[in-house]
Each structure stands twice: as C-alpha cells, then as structure tokens.
Input
Amino acid sequence: MTRTRLSPDDAAKRLMTMSAHRVPFTEIAQDGDSVLATTTLGPIVIPDNMTISPLERSGKNVRGLITKTGPVLEGTLAFAAVSTARGTIIGWEQDIRFVSWPVLDPLLAIVMRIGYGIAFNGLLKA
Output
C-alpha cells in the first residue's frame, strides 16, 4: 500500500499515464488505451504490450486495471485509490506471469511487487 496527499482521481490519473513511469532502459509509447513499453538490455529487447481499461469511480474512490497482453508478460495489475481522513491510500494486486517461462513466475511476482511499490511512490509524490 502507498499513501498520498493527492485526491483518488488525481492519483489514479498519474498511475494510468504510462509516459510518466520512468523505468531504466525502457521506452514507453502510449496511444490512448494501448501502451508499448520496450526494455532494451544490450542485445535483449523485451516488448511489454498493455491495455488500460477506463477508470471506475465510486464516490471519491477510483479503481483501475492494466492488462498485459504479451508477448513476454501477460496478466493484470488492478489498483484502488481510496479516500481516507489521512489522505488517499493506493492498494494493488497483480497477477502477472511470463508467457514462455512459467517456472520464473514466483521470482517475477517479487520483482514486480517491489518495482510497482517504487514506481507508485515516485508517481504519487504530491
């Protein structure tokens, strides 16, 4: 979980604007709800295609969903931005896996949990 002084709506918008995600060795191209993040490590090129679903609002609270569609990663990242008396709390769950190397999925889960935590904290600084 991450806490921010931003409103739930502003926090969700920051999380869904992929061009704001600063990831080393990665270029991000976003066209509406379609995103291509290409990570290059020497001769290794890893394309990460994603689709962003429209935000769902309930009162002040907001939910978002990003679907990874391959060719290397597939699955979902769902998050909620919830208004509290002490600010907005962001919680998320991920179900992301390798398309071709499922044996590495437990390691991927740990790396993605840490990576999203760092990214969300950076994006949500007010």
Notes: The longest helix spans residues 105-123. Helices lie at 8-16, 105-123. The first strand starts at residue 2 and ends at 4.
